[in-house]
Amino acid sequence: MHEPTISFSLHDDKEKEIKKTLTIIYDALRQKGYNPINQIVGYILSEDPTYITTYNNARSLIRRIDRDELLQILVKSYLGE
């Protein structure tokens, strides 16, 4: 008997990791009293890290995410792909 082949995508793992990281950043911004959506959008548009709080290491985390990759994931998610 053959075991079924398990396949996985490194791209899917990367998207999950980015979503997890973005959720941590979102929570840190919310906990500090910021509007997380406005702050994250400001960061994406300007790439200015001061839009993101240093609380819970959020600023360091967001700088690890490739901005182009983040935008691709967001658009894909929005369009339901």
Structure at a glance:
By secondary structure, the protein is mainly alpha-helical. The protein is 63% helix and 0% strand. The protein has helices at 10-31, 36-46, 58-62, 67-79.
Ordered list of secondary-structure elements with their pairings:
Blueprint: H1 10-31, H2 36-46, H3 58-62, H4 67-79
- CA distance, first residue to last residue: 36 Å
* Main beta sheet strand tally, sense and closure: none
Strand fraction band?
under 5%
Average of the residue pLDDT scores? 90
Number of strands: 0
Order of helices and strands: HHHH
Radius of gyration: 15 Å
Structural class: mainly alpha
Question: Count the helices. How many?
Answer: 4
Uncertain regions spanning at least 5 consecutive residues? none
Provide the helix percentage.
Answer: 55-70%
Domain tally:
1
**Which geometry do the CA atoms define?**
globular
Which keywords apply here?
81 residues; mainly alpha; 4 helices; 63% helix
Walk me through this protein's architecture.
- This protein is mainly α and 81 residues long.
- It has one domain (18-79).
- It contains four helices and no strands.
- Helix 1 crosses helix 2 (36-46).
- The termini are far apart.
- The model has no long low-confidence stretch (mean pLDDT 90).
